[in-house]
Design goal:
Distance between the termini: 66 Å
Strand content: under 5%
Radius of gyration: 21 Å
Strand order of the largest sheet: 1-2
Order of helices and strands: HHHEHHHHHHHEHHHHHHHH
Helix content: 55-70%
Amino acid sequence: MNKNADIKNIYTLDGRVPVAKAVPFGLQHILAMFVANIAPIIIVAGACGLSESDKAMLIQSAMIIAGIGTMIQLYPVWKIGSGLPIVMGISFTFVSILCFVGPTYGYGAVVGAVLVGGIIEGLLGLFAKYWRKLISPIVAASVVTAIGFSLLSVGAASFGGGNGSEDFGSIPNLILGTVTLICCIGFNIFAKSYWKQLSVLFGLVVGYILAIAMGMVDFSSIQGTAVIAFPKIFPFKPVFEPGAIVSVTLIFLVSATETIGDTSALAMSGLGREVNEKEISGSIACDGFISTLSSVFGCMPITSFSQNVGLVAMTKVVNRFTILMGAVIMVLAGVFPIFGAVLATLPDPVLGGCTVMMFGTIVVSGLQMISDCGYSQRNMTIAALSLSIGIGFTQMPDLFRYFPQLVQNVFAENCVAIVFVVAVILNLILPKNMEAVKE
């Protein structure tokens, strides 16, 4: 009887679950977000020209930070954290802008911008009730759609072998990327229940094995790797470049809107109730302040993971202690450098094969969010104009040539920032009922 009660407790927020029962369910959450947690690091590090050893170090830090962030979301510290079963990880939302900031100003500017932007988001999170209504659902939906579109070229570049690679678009690269993508799709089609969440991981494993067989993996960087090591404090000296800080801070605001959506969806799908103001505030604050901690270890911003929200909705496993076991596994994985060193050898086409589908899913999710907002004249105007200006104008960066350098740095090639600013302005100035005004 007690054993049955223990099992049933995985479906309650604070029920008591034995460690042996909690670990498998916690591990399931980690496997669902594993690839998405390390992929942003590999992509941005590659764009910034970092070495394999630096990539390995950042992957190691990413696992530790994701584990710490998840722990604080589960069990809040002061007002930081939601107390909900939220799994944290390195955010894809920032990949596009950091792939611009890093090569332009150096990786130190990435660290500096994340440090400052995280503090700003954290403070905004503590006062979320005063501003969050300014960012309506249609604004968030337009921004998510823009993020998806901005990432498509990033996925395509990885698929071809990585920007600047001598063999870009070669037949071996295309074969490797295609096989990986087919494996992801096939697993997603044929797997049952929550196993579908592991389709990207399956594609990565198969693609990696094929890459080894094709002689496309270089293991030389693994030699001499320590068995156990802890992340370094400020492995990259922060550089506080104004243009980079403004750009990244705008994306932090975008990330905050996604966090609001994730937290709301989790409370409704997992707990069957509306999210409260304290949970929203704590969730955003955790995103911000833990992102600042992430920058201390040279890492990218961290946020709630939508795929884990989907996993909760599917399995109804909401027990905090159960998911805490997953967070502990992440931290332990980060303490062993060999783990990051092996992942750093992952060829770009394998990563591209995995991320092409993931980035496309972000586009579709944004379009679905727009649909959920309703096709009123007001919503259509906000979405259409913000997307057309944001995506269209950044295809022609010379449009900004007579603007101050700071404006050029922030907006000329950053469609997400433009979409966000235009959507917010339109949301503030357009009449609430445009159909009535028209009549």
